[in-house]
Amino acid sequence: MTQPERRPHPLETPPQPAPTRAPSASAAGPRFSLGNTPPYLTQAALALMVALFILRAASPELDQQIQQAGWNLPQAVFQENQMYRLFTSIFLHAGIWVERWRGGFALAPIGALHLLFNAYMLYHFGGALERILGHLRFAAIFTIGGLCASILSAVTGDPCIPSLGASGAVFALIGAQVILLLRNRRLFGQRGNHMLRQLLIWTLINFGIGIASTLPGSALRIDNWAHFGGLVAGLALAAALIPRYQFNVAAEESGWQVKLRPQAASAALNLIPAAVIAAFLLAFLWRAATLPVVFCRFF
Question: What's the pTM value of the predicted model, to 2 decimals?
């Protein structure tokens, strides 16, 4: 008599590996995010600029006092050693009150326009860069770039003509974004080339308006030297601080995933910002040693 064939118990069967599922055909292709750092420093700078503007709008006297206490005045910087003005002037903008020819004061729209323009550019460029670079590198570019802009403005300007505004620091951020796009051309592709063209056109237009403001009869006064100083400093700092990103594409259940890995810049590139900052400091020391004694009066 033959015995029936013994069948294995289900618990005796080794588990089979689950089949690997490829991404569905509806996957939209690679997805990646270059940075997700919250732009807290950008928001703090914007909040400080707006708060100072609102405070100055309280009265013409307060507007004048805050302006005179914080603007970048070469005479005060070089002769009275008030170096803090190189920094405080970044967060101040054009006068809010204007004196009427019949007496009294009136609100001037130019101050609000100056603030709105710089605030928009800081929000647009600063927010994007801080998300990618993080707080420390963003702070270095914004602060050092703004200080270099103030230094060049003080070195080249009239000792009794003050300057103020965040545009020099904003131009440093623009220079950093140019380096980011150039160094990662393969990553940004055609969109990056389009952004580079927009940056070039926007920069040329601003320098053109600055040159036009120096013509006789112009009601504007734009400090092109501050813009140029911020742009040069931003390019130099970004050469050492902004990495080149490499990415790998991998198939996962949720779709195609891109992992970005930053590569640090060459150590030799650290010499570029050091040389540029040294040049600004030498120009500052030269101007401090050669500026004749002057006395400025305001209002």
Answer: 0.83
Instruction: State the burial class of residue 47 (Cβ atoms within 10 Å of its Cβ: 0-12, 13-18, 19+).
Output: exposed
| Per-residue model confidence as pLDDT tens digits over 115-154 | 999 999 999 999 999 999 999 999 999 999 999 999 999 9
Q: Is 227 a catalytic residue?
A: yes
| Residue boundaries of the structural domains of the chain | 29-289
Average pLDDT, the chain: 84
Rounded to an integer, what distance in angstroms lies between the CA atom of residue 250 and that of residue 257? Answer: 5
CATH level 2 (architecture), domain 29-289: Up-down Bundle (1.20)
pLDDT per residue over 258-277, tens digit each?
566 777 667 778 899 999 99
Which is catalytic among the residues 93, 114, 150, 227? 227
Find, among 225, 214, 223, 112, the residue nearest to 164 by Cα. 223
**128 and 206 in contact (C-beta within 8 Å)?**
no
Q: What is the pLDDT of residue 188?
A: 83
Tokens of 23: 């991404």
Choice among 59, 124, 167, 213 that is catalytic: 167
**Is 167 tagged catalytic?**
yes
In the block, residue with structure tokens 């802009």: 149
Helix axes 40-56, 60-70, angle to 10 degrees: 130
